[in-house]
Write a structure and sequence with these properties.
- It is a single chain.
- With about 375 residues, this protein is an alpha+beta fold.
- The protein has two domains: about 160 residues, no CATH class; about 150 residues, Immunoglobulin-like (Sandwich).
- The chain is about 30% helix and about 30% strand.
- It is globular and about 75 Å long.
């Protein structure tokens, strides 16, 4: 590189760094953070956190909740889906940071979390000092604060544990983790959902730091088929007994430190087992793993906003707890000498509110076996 070209590149780098620093405020857009933390912000943009506010499913549920109970519910919903809206008083949802969902300056302003109250509460300090998990972090753009809570599952608790106005625990992911061996071994949420990889905290244009270990901010969860396949395993065996076939399926939660599914009670893990003969005759059997909730009158709730606002009790909880294996047995007609294909498909169902089938259900894994 020529001296003049080097000077130009250096000048541009310093200009961008200066621009980012000048635009940095106690509450800034992720776009400002991304000028220095490019790879982290690009990863975060692929996360459910970045779309917590603009999610079509959430927007529909929010509109339905407001139509049913009035605009006051907005503050409760935005507390997790757009926490900076609550902090800035942006109930009209006009600010860019509101539409960034769970954005940088919320998580990196949290200093402590109280997990002993009915609903876990985060204490945030909004300033130019940004909190995080690195003890030796140094930035030329802003002060840094080491935060033990960022290496603890407690950082997740304020939005992944929630009791509604009836005192009913609608979201129980944090308490599920706490009760599991993962919680007892202090294997935190980040170890699965924010796995560390080699990289630089800040773009090399600004910080000449050595390559270190950074947490992936994509935070893969139930929207990631790869993550679901790491957490859930399916094993199928078929045995024939005369003109009948016994299909045995083992469904195992091998790697999630919480129940599957977790989160909204409308989520389901669906096991569909089928037998299809050569002449096209097909029969199905189904098993659903879910947490079905009811209101105070005993009515099963089947709408997203109702389960959060009106749940008062559990009708049935058939979910797979951490490390649990279910041994399911199905029997089908299968005449000897007739070719029959047996198939077991495991699907993750998100919500009946989802407008598109692709957003409503995803196939996790399929196993098949053919008999003659």
């Amino acid at each position: 590189m020529s001296v003049s070209l080097f000077r130009f590149a250096l000048g541009m780098t310093l200009a961008v760094a200066a621009s980012a620093q000048a635009r940095l405020h106690p509450i800034s857009s992720a776009e400002v953070c991304g000028q220095c933390h490019l790879s982290i912000v690009e990863s975060w943009k692929e996360s459910a956190h970045s779309h917590a506010m603009d999610s079509r499913l959430f927007q529909d549920a929010l509109a339905a909740a407001e139509a049913d109970s009035g605009a006051a519910v907005r503050g409760t919903c935005l507390g997790c889906h757009a926490p900076l809206a609550v902090q800035t008083g942006d109930m009209a949802m006009d600010r860019k940071t509101t539409w960034e969902g769970v954005t940088c300056d919320y998580c990196h302003s949290v200093r402590t979390v109280d997990t002993d109250s009915a609903n876990p509460r985060a204490r945030a300090e909004f300033s130019l000092a940004k909190s995080g998990p690195l003890k030796d972090a140094v930035s030329s753009a802003h002060p840094t604060v080491y935060s033990p809570v960022h290496v603890s599952s407690a950082i997740c608790a304020p939005c992944h544990e929630y009791k509604n106005g009836q005192g009913f625990p609608v979201l129980t992911t944090f308490s599920e983790w706490k009760a599991s061996r993962y919680g007892k071994e202090n294997k935190n949420c980040q170890s699965c959902h924010m796995a560390a990889q080699a990289g630089k905290v800040a773009d090399a244009r600004f910080e000449r730091e050595p390559t270190t270990s950074i947490n992936i901010h994509r935070m893969a969860g139930s929207r990631s088929v790869a993550q679901l396949n790491r957490a859930v395993k399916l094993k199928m065996d078929v045995a024939r007994d005369g003109g009948r076939a016994k299909v045995t399926v083992d469904v195992s939660n091998i790697a999630a430190g919480h129940s599957i599914p977790t989160g909204s009670p409308l989520r389901q893990l669906i096991l569909d087992v089928s037998a299809r003969t050569a002449d096209g005759k097909e029969t199905h059997a189904k098993k659903i793993y879910a947490r079905t909730v009811k209101d105070a009158a005993g009515k099963v709730l089947d709408k997203e906003h109702f389960v959060f606002m009106k749940s008062a009790g559990v009708m049935i909880d058939s979910r797979l707890t951490a490390d649990e294996t279910r041994h399911e047995v199905f029997t089908f007609d299968s005449p000897v000498g007739t070719s029959t294909e047996f198939k077991a498909t495991l699907s993750y169902y998100y919500s009946p509110f989802a407008r598109d089938k692709a957003d409503q259900r995803v196939t996790v894994v399929t196993k098949s076996q053919r008999f003659r």
